[in-house]
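HOLO CASE FILE
Compound: protoporphyrin IX containing FE
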Amino acid sequence: MTLTPAASLYDFILAVHIMAVVIAFGFVFALPVVYMVAGKHDPRSLPILHRIEYTVERLIINPALLVVVAAGIYLASDGHHWSEFFVQWGLAAVVVIGALVGSVMIPAAKRAEEAARRDLADAGESDFQPGAEYQALVRRLNLVGSGLGVLVLATILFMAVKP
Ligand code: HEM
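Model generated. Tokens follow.
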């Protein structure tokens, strides 16, 4: 009979690392569908959706990123991975993600909420006409949001493949 070794602390921290990645980023990949449906079927929901977006970024994504980094530091130290490319990439990715979420995504979503509220108030009972400011903010959110999505997927690839 062969005995399988019990899972080590390293394995549990690896699971925590991956759970935090899912909790941090799962939501953002569904956002394009959320906004597509809202824009088509209920544009009056756009302001609250932008508010939900930046609240999730503040209350879920930023704290979960801290857990990703803390668990990653444990894994890199315990597993002696500090000199490997995927760890350095991971650290740089976390800094870029944190900086862009804090300095672009949250402020742009706040301003988009306000702009959408103004445009909806101006439209009154007629159809929602997104103004120039709202459109520019949504373009910025889409551009930076897509870049962040690609960066997250590339980081998962590098973490798993360890080139
Ligand atoms: C956005 C940031 C990050 C994402 C999405 C991410 C994702 C992942 C994933 C999915 C794994 C599992 C790979 C596997 O077991 O095959 C992993 C493992 C790992 N990550 Fe990260 N990670 C991130 C940041 C970091 C950071 C900042 C560090 C170090 C400071 C780090 C260090 C590690 C280490 C050492 C492993 C374990 C490798 C192993 O034992 O196989 N990660 N990461």
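CASE NOTES: The chain has one domain: 9-161. Residues 14, 17-18, 21, 68-69, 72-73, 75-76, 79, 81, 87, 90-91, 93-94, 97, 152, 155-156, 159-160 surround protoporphyrin IX containing FE (CB under 6 Å).
CLOSED: yes
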